[in-house]
Amino acid sequence: MRLADLADPTATEPHARRGEMGARHLVALVAALVVALLLASSAPIASSAARDFGAGPDAWSGDLTPITSAEWTRARAAHLLERAGFGGTPEEVERLAAMTPAEAVAFLVDYDSLPDGDPTPFDESPIYPNGYKFRSIQELAREAMTTGKALGIDARREGKLPLQPGIDEFYTLLWSDFGEIARAGQWWAERMLTTPRPFEERMTLFWHDHFATSQEKVHRHRKMIRHVDTLRQHALGDFEDLLVAVSQDPAMLIWLDNKDNVKGHPNENYAREIMELFTMGEGNGYTEADIREVARAFTGWTITEDHTTDPGDGVFVDRAELHDDGEKTILGQTGDFDGYEAIAIIVRHPATARFITEKIYRYYVREELDRALHDRLAAALTEGGFEIAPLMKTIFLSRDFYSEPTVGSMIKSPVHLVVSTYRKLGLDEIPGLPDFGETTGSLGQSLFLPPNVAGWPGHYSWINPATLLSRGNFVEALLFPPDPMLIEPPDKDIHPGYRKIPVMFPDYDIVGHVWDQRTMRMEPVPLVLYDKYLAGLPPHEVFAMIEDGRAATMEMGESTMMNGAAMGTSKMAQVAHGEQYNLAVGVYNGHVEANRRVKPIPRVPAAIDLVAVAERYEIDTVAELVDHFIERFLRVEIHADRRAAIEQFARQQLGADQIARPVDDATRASLEEGLRRVLHLILSTPEYQLA
């Protein structure tokens, strides 16, 4: 099916409703593109045309010989910037292209010689007003019952649910920490977008996937941010130093339980994963006995008590009295080893160099790694003292890196897709529309929240019919954002199941709250209107009805009354005589209070001006426009039939083959909308998913 066949006749109307047009086209478009992607899955997409995007001959595959200045082109500079960073504007590509290959690679890899761009520190929300962090509900309930206090507050009150305040604060801290993680994800993405050292952030993202540690268990946003800082600090240095730093990182000590690993009661979780996932690879030369011995070596590496915001809480400590200093045998070597010595033994095992180089190669180059090349890369890492930077220079300078099997062969991860789109547009901040975390999460990747200790599966797992649709939806939301006053922001959304709690437990007089984009606060809503909100009434209409007095004349909806009656007879909704606290009530009240404490993410659309782009680059025709967008955004040539269809679509949108310069605000707005529709179509193609 040709894309031209999907064109909607109403799309030529300059003022057609954006939401209707985009939704109709995208559903049809994705149906065609999924078929195209599946048909191409057994072979490189547009492989013959990929030569125009810097792909060298097949003979370069597996060749670590550095490419020469004569072989260096603008297209190869763009490929390097895409893989070693997040792509860039035409000017950023031209800057690399003007260098020699060695200079360009050094410019990216030796980033310590560049200013870091003075990254903005994370702007914390006041989520710890009482000086206490989230802790287990069992601990705080016992403390509340015995002392009347918990988490720095009076945890006991008169009347119903006397111990509820502590439970409410427990959930407030839990949801607040996740709220901060959402903000931290956007903050890190902004660093990826604006940094003059893109490879630093790309390598940090690689290690975040490799040493996958998640907020889902750590429950400490500050520790998660420091964990990523640790990865960044050691990203290109000695791998052994990185491994020591990660092994002593408080987030990792919590995540894989080494904080509980003590003499006489060793916890083998971290010992297993450090060999299976972080160094040697599953089944590559170690035994269950080695795991037990490594666990003994790591005993005593723990953290201090972690209940308050005191700077000394929750930091790494090597407690000698908890360390098993007996003799151990690890990978054939015997001694009274500690954690440092265990790491040194593991790093120097031949399997480690092979495992790390394979993982780096598959992340930065391509999925297939032949044995001979693998041998040479592992030898290079070993002979280079396990320094990562020289290995990366070898890879990025090699003919193999620019060979036809490599160029345009990687599927962009969700974070790469979103950040690279913004960088190529020349944005200087992450927009709040669409929401960064919601977008990448719907595509399968949430920063600080890898799915498990193995990290994200990556590559082919990023693409399926659902995620391809979501990728197109991301582009549409970016280019045609909704009115920020008419949305319910994801960072202030309460899960639909939890929203029902006020009507599920009427005896507790829980006040329903809804986020108001005008006041930027959670506002109380009468139950009669909260009923309408649960039924789908948008928040801005809820508050409009309060303000014009309509709420006073409304009655409860039949569905809610029936639901409430049913809930009243259910086990969950029954109010037990003498109940001390209710977890469901805490879940809801905690959400409301967390939304008050956590700073909202600004809902500002992207500052995109495609008319200015056309003027700056003197784009006068549809063909020039499509050429510019393809060269700027894609890393493989688009299929000839698809290109012809896109040009036809562009002529429909712009009304002619020539792009007329706007003469007033109305013609400028019409041209801008047409240009955005064309770009939306290009960025929804299968080719744009490749790097």
Average pLDDT number: 90
Strand order of the largest sheet: 1-2
User: What best-fitting shape do the alpha-carbon axes yield?
Assistant: flat
Distinct helical segment count: 30
**Structural class, from secondary structure content?**
mainly alpha
Q: Determine the fraction of residues in helical runs and give it as a percent range.
A: 40-55%
Uncertain runs are 1-51, 558-577
CA-atom Rg in angstroms: 28 Å
Characterize the largest beta sheet: strand count, sense, and whether it forms a barrel.
2 strands, antiparallel
Give the number of DSSP strands.
8
Q: How much β-strand is present in the residues?
A: under 5%
| Terminal CA distance | 25 Å
Plain-language structure description:
The protein has helices spanning 18-40, 74-84, 90-97, 101-109, 137-147, 164-194, 198-210, 215-218, 221-233, 239-247, 250-255, 269-279, 288-297, 339-347, 350-364, 371-383, 388-397, 414-425, 436-442, 465-479, 496-499, 501-504, 527-534, 539-547, 558-569, 583-597, 610-616, 622-633, 640-654, 665-682; strands at residues 149-150, 153-154, 301-303, 316-318, 328-330, 333-335, 513-516, 521-524. It is mainly alpha-helical. The chain has a domain at 137-177 and 489-597. The strands form four sheets. A two-stranded antiparallel sheet has the order 1-2. Strands 3-4 form a two-stranded antiparallel ribbon. The model is unreliable at 1-51 and 558-577 (pLDDT under 50).
